[in-house]
Amino acid sequence: MDRHFQPVKVLLPNEEVARRLADAIRTGFFRLGSRLPSERSIAEQMQVSRPTVREAVKLLVEANILTVRPGAGGGTFVSSEIVPLDLIVSRPDMRPGDIDEAIEVRRLILPWVAQIASQYAEDADFDRMREAIRFGRDSLPPPEVTKSSPEHISSIIIASMRFDLALARATRNGLVLELMELLLQWVEPMRHGTLHTRADLVLSLELVETMMQAIEAGDPAQIANITERRLGILENALEEQTGRRLRRNRRPASAG
Predict the structure, then answer these.
(1) Looking at the structure, do residues 43 and 153 belong to the same domain, yes or no?
(2) Which residue spans traverse the membrane (predicted)?
């Protein structure tokens, strides 16, 4: 189907508010245990009615993302940062060709973003990167647990996503940030099938931590090397999982 004629999904106002709040939690704007702005404040900022905000909060309470505490000192609090991607966007219906295209775009964008981030990143950017890594470390299963649960896997994927968004913010280019957000929405479903053991999760965090150190050092060769490792880990895992070679690894048959 041509992209101009893809199915249209129209969200209700309360669904859109819930989506935006969930996205703010998922990307780390609101942290676990933090209190959301008042219903009136959210309504004014998003230019919707207070009942709309109330219904949006109800949706996230039902999803176990938010908790509402009544009485003095009460309010709406973040009860989980493990927000499923489906609450933010419709999960892409991936076909083999889509996987190839998403991987190619990732290989095009990530090296450039990492190199530019090393030039423009400020203390606040590195703080975001460290916070993403810390979130991932805190979410790891105990050492004696070798097989990872879906929640552990989601936590590490969210940590990696927050790290890559911090890189994109560090470029000081709003369009790059939007492109990175869109790319991560496509890449995330692939990663769920490639992380199985605690060792897989630890390696994922070690790679982003090494990338941060290379960016702090401002060494183009180190940045290129760790970026290639991050790209290769996912690409190799996908080939093992699907049993098919990615398009970039295929070679035409030799003539004669």
Answers:
(1) no
(2) none
Residue 39 domain boundaries: 10-87
Residue 126, CA atoms < 13 Å, CB-side half-sphere = 15
* Domain of residue 58, CATH code: 1.10.10.10
Q: Distance (Å, rounded) from C-alpha 204 to C-alpha 241?
A: 17
- Check if the beta carbon of residue 94 is closer than 8 Å to that of residue 190: yes
Alpha carbon 35 to chain centroid, angstroms:
22
Are 133 and 212 in contact, with CB atoms under 8 Å apart?
yes
Q: In 24-107, which ranges are E strands?
A: 66-69, 75-78
If you search the block for the tokens 């009942």, which residue do you land on? 51
253 in a domain, yes or no?
Answer: no
Residue 17 lies in a domain: yes
Amino acid at 84: P
- 65 plus 103 within the same structural domain: no
pLDDT digit string (tens) for 103-162?
999 999 999 999 999 999 999 999 999 999 999 999 999 999 888 899 999 999 999 999
Using the CB atoms, write b or e for 218-247: b if 16+ within 10 Å: eeeebbeebbeebeebbbebbeeeeeeebe
Residues 138 and 80 in one domain: no
